[in-house]
Amino acid sequence: MKLGLAALALLAFAAGCSQKETTSSSNIRTQGIAATMKVTTGGQNSSVEAILRVGGDESNTYVILENGDKLTCEAGGETKDLHAEAEGIYRNTFATGAENTEFKIALLRDKDDDAVSNSVKLPAPFKIGALPSNNPSREKDDVTITWDPSGGSDDMTLDVTGSCIFDEHVDLPGDSGSYTLAKGSLESTGGSNPESCDLDVTIMRTRNGTTDTNLDNESTFKAIQQQTSKFTSAP
Fold it and tell me: Are the C-beta atoms of residues 114 and 106 closer than 8 Å to each other?
């Protein structure tokens, strides 16, 4: 019985820790706000997102902008407000995805310091090359994934997801334009009865920007060029 009560108490504690909490921006100095900002594009439009937290970038306490406080973003000669789409999460879109387009996000405060020096430039766009159409085997076949153009200095990552595998994430070594998923590197979820399924391949080219020193020092600003393609994989 004691063990059961302890387990229930632990579950209750874990559930409580995972709950999202909020606080008004009126209660927080600018230096206490950790802003996780990013711009994501894969074509002609870019999505801008800013997540505001208090207590660091992994906190579960989100900041609600109130009493005259707001976020704006400038890109391509246009300035827009970022609108709340969830508690502490602010977004908008811009009709541009061109290389080196600069995005500037400003946190404007009614009764505390502004934070206007947040900026990032989009990395170069790219396309994923043709993926296999012959249903390669995860156990027996290598699969080479290509993208073009390549050769830059921005960070590259690759994600492979699908209903028949455990998600695979790879920090690509440089921007060579090619990466091979070695046979046996994708782990099936079916145990002794693996299945075929469609796999989504997502490549991201990421560039880090700068953040205002008035914000919490865990604030970040990233720009991402992202492309996704798919192929059918056999066991």
Answer: yes
Answer yes or no: are the C-beta atoms of 209 and 171 closer than 8 Å. Answer: no
Tell me the backbone φ, ψ of residue 121, rounded to 5 degrees: -115, 140
Give CA–CA dist 9/11, Å, rounded. 5
As a whole number of angstroms, the distance between CA 55 and CA 217 comes to: 11
pLDDT at 10: 39
pTM for this entry = 0.88
Tens digits of per-residue pLDDT, 24-47?
999 999 999 999 999 999 999 999
118 to 40, 110, 115, 172: CA distances (angstroms): 16, 18, 7, 27
Judge contact between 223 and 206, C-beta under 8 A: yes
Domains of the chain: 19-123+210-220 (2.60.40), 127-207+224-233 (2.60.40.10)
C-alpha–C-alpha distance, residues 137 and 117, integer Å: 49
Give tens-digit pLDDT for 164-203: 999 999 999 999 999 999 999 999 998 889 999 999 999 9
